[in-house]
Structure to design on (125 residues):
């Protein structure tokens, strides 16, 4: 078993965890290297054993037309699945904006599993 697709914007030390989590014949899409560009461990051998596809991409050097088409396709195909509950975002924690520094410390310490959300409710009072 495992994930059929992994979307990875971190790279670095997560590479081995990603390949270990990937299903046979799975696809690993690397679109950023926030954790660094170096790979340690037997990642390449595991990619071969799992017949995995590693796809590297970035939006940085893509045209505005391409980016617009990508956003439109996402809105058309994925947003309805989020709205219906088929897709669910993974939320780690919420912090009021006044505690943004605590949220950032949580992220820097790599304690989160999912998104950290900043709320702005206190600004509405």
């Amino acid at each position: 078993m495992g994930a059929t697709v992994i979307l990875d914007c971190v790279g670095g030390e997560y590479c081995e965890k990603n390949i270990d989590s990937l299903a046979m014949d799975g696809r690993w899409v690397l679109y950023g290297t926030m954790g660094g560009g170096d790979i340690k461990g037997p990642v390449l051998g595991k990619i071969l054993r799992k017949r995995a596809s590693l796809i590297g991409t970035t939006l940085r050097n893509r045209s505005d037309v391409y980016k617009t088409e990508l956003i439109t396709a996402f809105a058309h195909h994925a947003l309805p699945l989020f709205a219906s509950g088929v897709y669910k975002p993974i939320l780690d924690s919420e912090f009021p904006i006044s505690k943004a520094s605590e949220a950032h410390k949580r992220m820097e310490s790599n304690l989160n599993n999912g998104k950290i959300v900043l709320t702005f409710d206190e600004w509405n009072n």
